[in-house]
Amino acid sequence: MSSKPFFSQNVATLFGIFIILACIGLANLYSASVDGRFFDAQMKHAFVGLAVFFVVGWFVPMRLVNAYSYVIHGLITFSLAVVLVLGHSAGGATRWISLLGFRFQPSEFAKLAMVLYVAKFFYNNSNIYTFRLKTLWPVLANILLVFVLIFKQPDFGTAGVCLLIAFAQLFFVRIEVSYRTFLSILSGSLATSVLGWIFFLRPYQKLRILNLLNPNMDPSGSGYNSLQSLVAIGSGKQFGKGFLQGTQTQLQFLPARHTDFIFSVFAEEHGFWGCVLVFVLFSALRLLLFPDFV
Fold first, then answer.
1. Model confidence over 89-121: pLDDT tens digits?
2. For residues 66 and 258, what is the distance between their CA atoms, to the nearest angstrom?
3. pTM above 0.70, yes or no
4. 131 Ramachandran zone, left/alpha/beta (phi>0; psi -120 to 50)
């Protein structure tokens, strides 16, 4: 792996698209934050993030990141275990660690640690053209461990994101699976899903899944958020209502508009074609990062 800074490849285009998407996101958050409180906090985070981006990009060689990927993953995994024992609880969840006057959420760092761990594993095994499941067991075991530790906090959403990140990386390698193994995986997944539904998922987590499948199941209760989101998206039509003109957002009918339903805010104000533009920008990022992958 090259020791050159990562700025050396497609830097201008990648950074340009990134800045455009960041500006779109900040403008959208400004509209969603009726009192401006969340926008101000996000602006501070954006400047700190850019500063870290430049410092890491210029001064931290990728070979160093590669060398310590397993260490970073191990520390984050350990911190996830510490959360369950000594973590700070709020809102019915235990997700934070307090250290030297600072409070941080290890599960957020687990997303990056997962990327580094899986990438390091395949870099170390780059001589293997086709992987088998028995070769991938260390990766699969670590993915499962991180998922369980975050799920126990409980944080089903972040656990699912970490799982999605890892399997998205697995998607880029060739894996040989026999017919018998495929049937075993399928039956095991179905059995795990049934057991998880019965014994592990909490009632509110089950409601989230059911409302995803059918928001009209409880339109004035558990399905209210999803239905309001659909109303906001649909009311944007082709070209939207205009910046700061979304009625669902500005009149605060749209719940969690600055977090879970931030895209609904954008769709209402900028319409179908505005959403297409965002998808095109993300697609351009994907093509620049993986030009040889079809």
1. 876 778 888 877 778 899 999 999 999 999 999
2. 35
3. yes
4. beta
